[in-house]
Amino acid sequence: MMRVMGISGMPGSGKSIISEIAAERGAMIVSMGDIIREEAKKRGETTKETAKNLREEFGQYIVSELTIKKIKMLQDEGLEKSIMVEGIRSHHEVEMFKENFDNFIILSIFANPSLRFERLKKRMREDDSTDYNVFKARDEMELEFGIGSVISLSDKLIINESDLESCHEKINEYFDEIDL
Questions:
Q1: How far apart are CA 4 and CA 63, in angstroms?
Q2: How far from chain centre, in Å, is Cα 9?
């Protein structure tokens, strides 16, 4: 049976670690951030501009609508794997997923801001910065989207403030619990 789950967390908290472990366990990962990055490329905008502009142009549900469309396409093609939706950022998005997929659950991961900033400086993806003020502004934007309520209302919250091995253990324990 195919299961659809969501992953949420602030930038640098460890969402990609959850995705990697889920993929190792046979799940397919659908990243909402990748969907925004694809749109940004088409529009010739930064991901930050596109994330904001898409919601202004098409409403709060647009990124989840594009993601749901992609998942339903995979279902129609006969996909039997579980799907992890990485990067859910608003309560609106959670509502849409719950309306479209039975037993949809949210797994969030948390790390404090200073630790996340250090991780992002090392990661240096396109939307990462070594400037703490830029990092804070990005956090504020994420919070404006409503990510705080998604994290606080998650079905499961994993604290990722220790070493990588501990984080892997916590994630694997949870996946064992839910039989992923």
A1: 16
A2: 7
